[in-house]
Amino acid sequence: MLMITDEKIEQYNRDGFVFIENALTSTQLQSMQSATARLIAESARITKSNDQYDLDTNHTSANPRLTRIKLPHLLDPIFNQVLKSEQILGLLRPLLGTDNIRLHTSKLNTKEPDGGQAVEWHQDWAFYPHTNDDLLAVGILLEDVDEENGPLQVIAGTHRASVLDHSSNGVFCGAIDPADPLFDQSKAVSLTGKAGSLSIHHVRTLHGSAPNNSDRARKILFYECGAADAWPLNGSSSTYTGMSQETIWSEMQARIISGEQPKQARLANVPVLMPVPPPPDATSIFKVQESGGAVSAFAES
Length: 301
Prior knowledge:
Blueprint: H1 6-15, E1 17-20, H2 26-42, E2 53-55, E3 66-70, H3 77-83, H4 86-96, E4 101-109, E5 119-122, E6 135-141, E7 152-155, E8 167-168, E9 171-172, E10 188-191, E11 198-202, E12 207-209, E13 220-227, H5 245-254, E14 256-258, H6 285-291
């Protein structure tokens, strides 16, 4: 079982992120790479984004190109197996401070070669505030990642600072304004490494990624998880939007990956800006940022 060191826990608490090399076995990595290749190949049959795929602008049946595979843990058993493995849970429990852990969502950002789309700078917390902020995202590198193919970038310490405005022209756009005086891109750290490594970043850590202008893919699988006593706030752009109380309770229980779902929510004194008014298209972060009029920090990348 992969164990997290006290040094890594201290770094996570201080900086809001941590990077761990060789987190997967070669068998796990190869199985996840094969499953990813299969899912991308199967996307050749569709012509517009749906509840399984977000298509890149130049996607064709002969050359399928995606920005994201949605909920991969429901599409192939290997993604669910790794999520619930003691390798991953052994990292999550000490960082979240509990045995009761719930999956918020999963996604596989494919970032194709030669122009794979950027993700503008944002805090995940802006999309789905909860009653407390013991939430994080695990990013598993399915390909080698370096500066050339659009790595995840983070800014240390931003998880302990303000929640920045993620609106444009009065509409939630899922990205900060690069001109915000509280944003300093010069402090960005790129999380690069070999396939099979992983990053973990706090839900309030400011992060983004440039376009992929290399000739190599940049595939990262994200599991967004949290302490199960962190309850989603009504009115946020979240996994549970539009569900009945009964359905929300059932979904929360079904998403438990360790322990159980408590009925009592833990309230913390955390800053919250609700993601309203919503943008015209909120079907993915790419559509939120595009339709909401986000200003790019990567325009010259």
